[in-house]
Amino acid sequence: MIAGKRLVAVFAGAALVMMGVVVALAARGCRRTPEAIPAWAAALSSPDSLNDPSLERELRRLRKTVSRLTPKGTYVVIDTHANQLYLRTADSLIFHAGCSTGAGHEVVDTLTNRRWVFRTPRGTFKINSKLADPWWRKPDWAFIEEKESIPKKEADRYDEEMLGDFAMGFGDGYFIHGTLYERLLGISVTHGCVRLGADDLKYVYERVRIGTPVYIF
Amino acid sequence: MRSRWRWRRCLVVVCTALSALTACGGRSRETGRGEATIGRTQAEAEYRFLQSEIALASTDSLYLLIDFARRETALKRRGTPLWSCPMRSPHGDPDGVDFSRRFLGEEGRSIRVVAWKHLYGGQEKIPAQTLEIVSRTLNADPASLQRLLPERFLLSFGDRAFMEVRTDVEGSAVGGLENQSKSVERTVDIILGGASLDLSMTGEQGLTLYEAVYPGMPVLLVPPPAR
Predict the structure, then answer these.
(1) ipTM
(2) Which burial class, exposed, middle or buried, applies to B19 when counting CB atoms under 10 A from its CB (0-12, 13-18, 19+)?
(3) Mean pLDDT for chain B?
(4) Partner residue facing B35 (CB), from A42, A62, A65
(5) Is the pTM of this model over 0.80?
(6) I need a labelling partner for B223 at 20 to 30 A (CA). Which of A149, B22, B97, B150 fits?
(7) Which among A12, A49, A69 has CB closest to B40?
């Protein structure tokens, strides 16, 4: 009788040991080494996430939406605070240069009471024109600021040197262009346009296209 | 006697095997659940962040991104990075764990707004002589043309969450008595459970960040990855 009990106990013990070994092996097979898996990959391959495919699907959709927000190619950024122009992509900075942006001062025509405030506009724009050897058609404020009379003849308004070798328009009469006063680069002295040094201007001109986004802040 | 001894040995072996297996199985279940929780939490954090980013990108406003995953602060508009600066935290909470916890709060909100900014001191960027000539030519106020490279400034995101920026510039104090009152306010808030992210950057980087940030500006946080 006693021998029978012993035999049952030994078999039961052996069965438990076998079960334990099987469970342990299975657990080892399923376990991953956390260090080997990147955090986000681990997140998406963890059992809870796999049990919730809607979250995973939604994450994929949102990631795609966010990636579409950034321009695909090169874009221009103008920092009016530090007077810097950047040429960059979403992931890398290609080039940067000191520039000059709007001084923010005001000119008033006391005769007609017209008023101009010279600020570089902030927001999102696009390059809409590219000009080589541009001429500047001086607007009325340029003569008023210089305390000169506004010319009667149209031909007297043109200045072929002021804008440098190239000009890139970004709307509403604003341009990225060259300057005769390179030593003032880095200071906010313009009437709203963005001035660059000759070499930097050439570099940027050669790399932007019509439609290149311009972000100004 | 001999058989009883064998029986006892058998029992000891079985018990040892069982306890070892229980411990092993328990640990494996625990690890599995832990990974899943981190995974789930991170997936949810990313989900919240992406939704916030899309919401901000649908407006035309400039927003500040404090990104612990990429270790940078950035200015973005419409989802596009315009300016960024690597995150260098000389002291305090370099991993941003306390700051992130404070910023996100119990409700885990990844967007806040700048409550206020305060400049402690700075250095004039444009030499006075140049400024005088330019201002005379333009008939403009020299002060409006001058730029101040910040030496140190403080941003508050409300709810006792702060960002303090120190630059490599040595300037003179500009804040007057407010410098002391803001320092005291920050210190008291931190003692009362607040958190501050202390960053260092160059004077030019500080100039851009300080001037671009305004009260009411949206701020988006990407918390440090869970470990």
Answers:
(1) 0.79
(2) exposed
(3) 85
(4) A42
(5) no
(6) B150
(7) A49
